[in-house]
Amino acid sequence: LKVTxxxxxxxxxxxxxxxxxxxxxxxxxxxxxxxxxxxAGAKFTMPSGSIDANVGNDTDCGMxxxxxxxxxxxxxxxxxxxxxxxxxxxxxxAMNATTAPGRITIKGGEYTSKMVCSGENxxxxxxxxxxxxxxxxxxxxxxFTASDxxxxxxxxxxxxxxxxxxxxxxxxxxxxxxxFKTGGNNGSVFYxxxxxxESNKTKVSVTGGKFSSDISKELNEGSVxxxxxxxxxxxGDGLYKVVEPVSFSVNGKKFSKLQDAINxxxxxxxxxxxxxxxxxxxxxxxxxxxxxDTKGYMVTVPDGQELVLTGGTTGVIKNxxxxxxxxxxxxxxxx
Length: 335
Prior knowledge:
This protein is mostly beta strands.
């Protein structure tokens, strides 16, 4: 299907139903996409439905799901995280330098690629999103899964080049939500070999989402946005999660907000709440029955704000770190 105008597909099933024998006879539709979105006036919107392009030989030949060409635009899913299901051999959503520019917005849905290339020069194709292109890509939701293979060569997002014979790759990728994982969580979410290149003009900004690998090691410093933290196994599912900076711990589980930590403490029979860093704190908190250990860190009340702590006779604030620069609560704003 080639889209050159504006098309909305809400609920249909697109399926390549060719037999394995027929597909093999014509080269497994290698490099073809089930849906091409081509041209500056082309926009393909898919709030729901499915695309099954899972045709190929699993090792180096197969179909793409959706491919963007020459200024085309794709919008997938809904603000509540629901959306279409796209399954393919090569990437579920793709473009490259020869087809740039383009725009991709993904709000939700399920996206899976099944390709397991093993050659050194072709493992870049083991991805759900193939993006070596000058494009704007905005992902706020959805689940992206790279194959069922436990190979370490699997990736979710592939950015294999910083420049090509067609020019410099200027990808602007923003991730504010979604789940990104490889089979068995053994591969890397990002394939980004030229991230340190002086000619690299790609910009990646991650402000949310969950990932099967430590993306801070796969991206340039600062790609995980300032004011955010990447926490391993934050939800007990083995995935890394981008969250607000964690400042509190209860029984080893980390929290960004004091109220969440107090609630967890009470749920666990009033386990101790421990600080993990210096913090600014304002608002009202009832910590009756809960012990808060500042662990030597400073609690600062921001200028012009108010902190009310209610503990009755059973709430305790203590500091178990004996050091010259350790604190309990420092009332440092003319209090």
